[in-house]
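Quick entry, no commentary yet.
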Amino acid sequence: MPRSPALRFRLLLDSDHALGPGKADLLETIAATGSITAAGRGMRMSYKRAWQLADELNRSFASPLIVTNKGGKRGGGAVLTPTGEQVLAVYRAIEAKAQKAFAAEMRILARLLAEKE
């Protein structure tokens, strides 16, 4: 099977904060599952790591990207705020534009990669 190069972006927001594919995927999975715990499980990361990343995301921006509800009879949950939805959409738009902008160069690299047996 031929190998193909891929672009993966890590945006440095400032000297202490970054947004990359893992955090973007976590936001997307929280939106889909309604839970930080379930999102982490679905991404095969520990409960602790998922919550750490969610906290980092919330501390990186002026307003939170994720809000949580405490557990109870129905259990807790998490949703993206409008800011969270906007940050995710902007990150995905950057990815898409970069894929399109560098498509020719990526095809050249794909042709130059050695086949692995």
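second:
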Amino acid sequence: MTISEFDAKVSAATGDTASTIRRCGFLILTRVQFELEPDDLRPPQVIDWDSVEPHLLARFIDELTD
């Protein structure tokens, strides 16, 4: 599928003009194969907001809103 065909299909699905779709910068994504390095296999970093004490929670919210 060419980018013009893609723009036409997105245009038909959204009701926008093809030129509007082109200006929005839609792209066709392709799968990329990659290998994980051992350093990439670490556990996810998460915060359990329900277990954080309120005074610590306020600090995180302040950092997010600054």
